[in-house]
Protein backbone atom coordinates (compact mmCIF):
# COMPACT_ATOMS: atom_id res chain seq x y z
CA UNK A 1 0.00 0.00 0.00
CA UNK A 2 3.01 2.30 0.42
CA UNK A 3 3.64 1.99 -3.30
CA UNK A 4 0.02 2.93 -4.05
CA UNK A 5 0.32 5.95 -1.75
CA UNK A 6 3.46 7.18 -3.50
CA UNK A 7 2.02 6.57 -6.97
CA UNK A 8 -1.14 8.42 -5.99
CA UNK A 9 0.90 11.35 -4.70
CA UNK A 10 2.91 11.56 -7.92
CA UNK A 11 -0.20 11.27 -10.05
CA UNK A 12 -2.07 14.03 -8.26
CA UNK A 13 0.86 16.44 -8.57
CA UNK A 14 1.18 15.69 -12.27
CA UNK A 15 -2.60 15.79 -12.80
CA UNK A 16 -2.81 19.41 -11.64
CA UNK A 17 0.37 20.33 -13.50
CA UNK A 18 -1.23 18.86 -16.61
CA UNK A 19 -4.38 20.89 -15.98
CA UNK A 20 -2.33 24.09 -15.76
CA UNK A 21 -0.51 23.12 -18.96
CA UNK A 22 -3.76 22.71 -20.92
CA UNK A 23 -5.17 25.91 -19.43
CA UNK A 24 -2.17 27.76 -20.83
CA UNK A 25 -2.24 25.96 -24.18
CA UNK A 26 -5.94 26.76 -24.48
CA UNK A 27 -5.58 30.55 -24.11
CA UNK A 28 -5.78 31.18 -27.89
CA UNK A 29 -9.17 29.44 -27.96
CA UNK A 30 -10.71 32.50 -26.33
CA UNK A 31 -10.60 34.02 -29.81
CA UNK A 32 -11.87 30.90 -31.57
CA UNK A 33 -15.24 29.11 -31.91
CA UNK A 34 -16.51 26.83 -29.14
CA UNK A 35 -15.22 23.66 -30.80
CA UNK A 36 -11.64 24.75 -30.10
CA UNK A 37 -12.00 24.84 -26.31
CA UNK A 38 -13.94 21.56 -26.39
CA UNK A 39 -11.01 19.95 -28.21
CA UNK A 40 -8.63 21.23 -25.53
CA UNK A 41 -10.91 19.67 -22.90
CA UNK A 42 -10.79 16.34 -24.73
CA UNK A 43 -6.97 16.43 -24.87
CA UNK A 44 -6.91 17.16 -21.14
CA UNK A 45 -9.26 14.24 -20.43
CA UNK A 46 -7.34 11.74 -22.57
CA UNK A 47 -3.94 12.78 -21.26
CA UNK A 48 -5.13 12.58 -17.64
CA UNK A 49 -6.55 9.09 -18.22
CA UNK A 50 -3.33 7.99 -19.92
CA UNK A 51 -1.32 9.33 -16.99
CA UNK A 52 -3.54 7.42 -14.55
CA UNK A 53 -2.79 4.16 -16.36
CA UNK A 54 0.96 4.78 -16.59
CA UNK A 55 1.50 5.90 -12.99
CA UNK A 56 -1.26 4.17 -11.00
CA UNK A 57 -1.87 1.14 -13.24
CA UNK A 58 -5.55 2.03 -13.45
CA UNK A 59 -6.80 0.72 -16.76
CA UNK A 60 -10.06 1.99 -18.23
CA UNK A 61 -12.51 -0.14 -20.21
CA UNK A 62 -15.40 1.39 -22.14
CA UNK A 63 -18.38 -0.83 -22.96
CA UNK A 64 -21.37 -0.14 -25.17
CA UNK A 65 -19.83 2.65 -27.24
CA UNK A 66 -21.95 1.51 -30.17
CA UNK A 67 -25.06 2.47 -28.20
CA UNK A 68 -24.22 6.19 -28.17
CA UNK A 69 -26.74 7.96 -30.45
CA UNK A 70 -25.75 10.82 -32.71
CA UNK A 71 -27.15 14.31 -32.31
CA UNK A 72 -29.07 15.85 -29.41
CA UNK A 73 -28.99 13.70 -26.30
CA UNK A 74 -29.21 13.56 -22.51
CA UNK A 75 -26.51 11.48 -20.83
CA UNK A 76 -27.37 10.45 -17.25
CA UNK A 77 -24.40 9.00 -15.42
CA UNK A 78 -23.72 7.46 -12.04
CA UNK A 79 -21.49 9.85 -10.11
CA UNK A 80 -18.96 8.29 -7.74
CA UNK A 81 -15.87 10.34 -8.51
CA UNK A 82 -14.41 13.46 -10.06
CA UNK A 83 -13.07 11.19 -12.80
CA UNK A 84 -16.25 10.95 -14.88
CA UNK A 85 -16.74 14.72 -14.89
CA UNK A 86 -13.93 15.01 -17.42
CA UNK A 87 -13.71 11.48 -18.83
CA UNK A 88 -17.19 11.34 -20.37
CA UNK A 89 -16.91 14.48 -22.48
CA UNK A 90 -14.46 12.86 -24.92
CA UNK A 91 -17.27 10.77 -26.47
CA UNK A 92 -19.56 13.61 -27.50
CA UNK A 93 -19.26 16.25 -30.21
CA UNK A 94 -20.90 19.10 -28.28
CA UNK A 95 -20.91 18.15 -24.59
CA UNK A 96 -22.86 20.35 -22.19
CA UNK A 97 -22.53 20.40 -18.40
CA UNK A 98 -24.54 22.05 -15.64
CA UNK A 99 -22.30 23.41 -12.90
CA UNK A 100 -22.55 25.60 -9.83
CA UNK A 101 -22.15 29.26 -10.71
CA UNK A 102 -19.21 29.75 -8.33
CA UNK A 103 -16.94 27.75 -10.65
CA UNK A 104 -17.04 30.56 -13.19
CA UNK A 105 -15.27 32.77 -10.65
CA UNK A 106 -12.10 30.65 -10.89
CA UNK A 107 -9.55 32.43 -13.12
CA UNK A 108 -9.00 30.77 -16.50
CA UNK A 109 -10.95 27.60 -15.62
CA UNK A 110 -14.15 29.53 -15.06
CA UNK A 111 -13.57 31.59 -18.18
CA UNK A 112 -13.25 28.38 -20.18
CA UNK A 113 -16.59 27.19 -18.80
CA UNK A 114 -18.20 30.37 -20.08
CA UNK A 115 -16.43 30.11 -23.43
CA UNK A 116 -17.66 26.52 -23.79
CA UNK A 117 -21.20 27.81 -23.09
CA UNK A 118 -21.82 25.57 -20.08
CA UNK A 119 -24.79 26.27 -17.81
CA UNK A 120 -24.03 27.77 -14.42
CA UNK A 121 -26.75 27.81 -11.76
CA UNK A 122 -27.18 29.44 -8.38
CA UNK A 123 -27.99 26.52 -6.09
CA UNK A 124 -29.25 28.88 -3.44
CA UNK A 125 -32.03 30.20 -5.69
CA UNK A 126 -34.22 27.12 -5.17
CA UNK A 127 -37.01 26.19 -7.57
CA UNK A 128 -36.55 29.26 -9.72
CA UNK A 129 -32.99 28.19 -10.55
CA UNK A 130 -34.19 24.67 -11.38
CA UNK A 131 -36.80 25.92 -13.83
CA UNK A 132 -34.33 28.28 -15.47
CA UNK A 133 -31.74 25.51 -15.73
CA UNK A 134 -34.26 23.10 -17.30
CA UNK A 135 -35.30 25.75 -19.84
CA UNK A 136 -31.72 26.62 -20.84
CA UNK A 137 -30.69 22.97 -21.02
CA UNK A 138 -33.70 22.12 -23.17
CA UNK A 139 -32.91 24.93 -25.60
CA UNK A 140 -29.26 23.90 -25.87
CA UNK A 141 -30.02 20.20 -26.38
CA UNK A 142 -32.61 20.92 -29.04
CA UNK A 143 -29.90 22.89 -30.87
CA UNK A 144 -27.86 19.69 -31.06
CA UNK A 145 -25.82 19.47 -27.86
CA UNK A 146 -25.34 16.46 -25.57
CA UNK A 147 -26.17 17.21 -21.94
CA UNK A 148 -24.08 15.19 -19.48
CA UNK A 149 -25.87 15.23 -16.16
CA UNK A 150 -25.52 13.38 -12.86
CA UNK A 151 -29.05 12.61 -11.63
CA UNK A 152 -27.98 12.19 -8.00
CA UNK A 153 -26.76 15.77 -8.03
CA UNK A 154 -23.40 15.14 -6.36
CA UNK A 155 -20.74 12.49 -5.94
CA UNK A 156 -21.92 9.59 -3.81
CA UNK A 157 -19.97 6.85 -2.06
CA UNK A 158 -19.94 3.46 -3.75
CA UNK A 159 -22.19 1.87 -1.12
CA UNK A 160 -24.39 4.90 -0.46
CA UNK A 161 -28.13 4.57 -0.97
CA UNK A 162 -29.00 6.11 -4.35
CA UNK A 163 -31.12 9.23 -4.41
CA UNK A 164 -32.15 10.38 -7.88
CA UNK A 165 -33.37 13.95 -7.94
CA UNK A 166 -36.57 14.85 -9.74
CA UNK A 167 -34.91 17.80 -11.46
CA UNK A 168 -33.28 15.53 -14.01
CA UNK A 169 -36.72 14.24 -14.99
CA UNK A 170 -37.87 17.80 -15.65
CA UNK A 171 -34.83 18.36 -17.86
CA UNK A 172 -35.62 15.13 -19.75
CA UNK A 173 -39.22 16.21 -20.34
CA UNK A 174 -38.21 19.71 -21.44
CA UNK A 175 -35.54 18.44 -23.84
CA UNK A 176 -37.75 15.85 -25.55
CA UNK A 177 -34.82 13.66 -26.69
CA UNK A 178 -33.42 10.21 -25.94
CA UNK A 179 -31.52 9.56 -22.72
CA UNK A 180 -28.33 7.49 -22.53
CA UNK A 181 -27.81 5.94 -19.05
CA UNK A 182 -24.22 5.32 -17.92
CA UNK A 183 -23.00 2.95 -15.20
CA UNK A 184 -19.48 2.86 -13.77
CA UNK A 185 -17.30 1.81 -10.86
CA UNK A 186 -14.92 4.79 -10.68
CA UNK A 187 -15.40 5.26 -6.94
CA UNK A 188 -13.28 2.17 -6.24
CA UNK A 189 -10.31 3.61 -8.15
CA UNK A 190 -10.64 7.38 -7.70
CA UNK A 191 -12.51 7.68 -4.37
CA UNK A 192 -13.97 11.01 -3.38
CA UNK A 193 -12.45 13.05 -0.52
CA UNK A 194 -9.04 11.37 -0.79
CA UNK A 195 -6.09 11.63 -3.15
CA UNK A 196 -5.59 7.84 -3.28
CA UNK A 197 -5.75 6.28 -6.76
CA UNK A 198 -6.02 2.49 -6.88
CA UNK A 199 -4.92 0.05 -9.61
CA UNK A 200 -7.34 -2.21 -11.42
CA UNK A 201 -9.89 -1.96 -14.19
CA UNK A 202 -12.20 1.04 -14.11
CA UNK A 203 -15.23 0.26 -16.28
CA UNK A 204 -17.67 2.65 -17.91
CA UNK A 205 -20.73 1.03 -19.48
CA UNK A 206 -23.08 2.89 -21.81
CA UNK A 207 -26.51 1.28 -21.50
CA UNK A 208 -29.48 1.05 -23.85
CA UNK A 209 -30.92 4.52 -24.54
CA UNK A 210 -34.33 5.41 -23.14
CA UNK A 211 -36.76 6.89 -25.69
CA UNK A 212 -38.25 10.36 -25.35
CA UNK A 213 -41.85 10.72 -24.23
CA UNK A 214 -41.77 9.00 -20.83
CA UNK A 215 -43.49 10.67 -17.91
CA UNK A 216 -41.27 12.09 -15.19
CA UNK A 217 -42.12 9.20 -12.84
CA UNK A 218 -41.52 6.57 -15.53
CA UNK A 219 -38.21 8.19 -16.43
CA UNK A 220 -36.88 8.27 -12.87
CA UNK A 221 -37.94 4.68 -12.25
CA UNK A 222 -36.37 3.34 -15.43
CA UNK A 223 -33.16 5.34 -15.41
CA UNK A 224 -32.44 4.61 -11.73
CA UNK A 225 -33.21 0.91 -12.12
CA UNK A 226 -30.93 0.31 -15.10
CA UNK A 227 -28.06 2.44 -13.79
CA UNK A 228 -28.09 0.94 -10.30
CA UNK A 229 -28.32 -2.66 -11.54
CA UNK A 230 -25.41 -2.23 -13.95
CA UNK A 231 -23.34 -0.26 -11.44
CA UNK A 232 -23.77 -2.96 -8.79
CA UNK A 233 -22.55 -5.54 -11.27
CA UNK A 234 -19.48 -3.45 -12.19
CA UNK A 235 -18.64 -2.71 -8.57
CA UNK A 236 -18.89 -6.38 -7.61
CA UNK A 237 -16.53 -7.39 -10.44
CA UNK A 238 -14.06 -4.63 -9.54
CA UNK A 239 -14.00 -5.65 -5.90
CA UNK A 240 -13.27 -9.24 -6.90
CA UNK A 241 -10.36 -7.99 -9.00
CA UNK A 242 -9.06 -5.85 -6.14
CA UNK A 243 -9.28 -8.76 -3.75
CA UNK A 244 -7.03 -10.74 -6.09
CA UNK A 245 -4.58 -7.84 -6.46
CA UNK A 246 -4.29 -6.93 -2.78
CA UNK A 247 -5.64 -9.94 -0.91
CA UNK A 248 -8.45 -7.66 0.24
CA UNK A 249 -10.50 -4.77 -1.04
CA UNK A 250 -8.64 -1.53 -0.27
CA UNK A 251 -10.34 1.30 1.53
CA UNK A 252 -13.58 1.85 -0.37
CA UNK A 253 -15.43 5.13 0.13
CA UNK A 254 -17.29 5.13 3.42
CA UNK A 255 -21.05 5.03 3.50
CA UNK A 256 -22.56 8.51 4.00
From TrEMBL:
InterPro entries from the UniProt entry: Plipid/glycerol_acylTrfase (IPR002123)
GO biological process terms on file: phosphatidic acid biosynthetic process
GO molecular-function terms, A-Z: 1-acylglycerol-3-phosphate O-acyltransferase activity
Domain Phospholipid/glycerol acyltransferase, chain residue ranges per copy: 73-187
Domain of life: Bacteria
Pathway(s) served: Lipid metabolism
Name of protein: 1-acyl-sn-glycerol-3-phosphate acyltransferase
Classification lineage: Bacteria, Pseudomonadati, Pseudomonadota, Alphaproteobacteria, Hyphomicrobiales
Amino acid sequence: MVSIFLRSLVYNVLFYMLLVFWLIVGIPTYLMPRWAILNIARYWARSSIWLLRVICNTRVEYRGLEKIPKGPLIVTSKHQSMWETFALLQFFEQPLYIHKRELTWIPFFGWYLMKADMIGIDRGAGGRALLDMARRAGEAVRRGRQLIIFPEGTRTAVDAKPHYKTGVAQVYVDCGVSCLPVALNSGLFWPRRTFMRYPGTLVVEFLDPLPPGLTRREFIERVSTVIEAATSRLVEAARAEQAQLFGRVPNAPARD
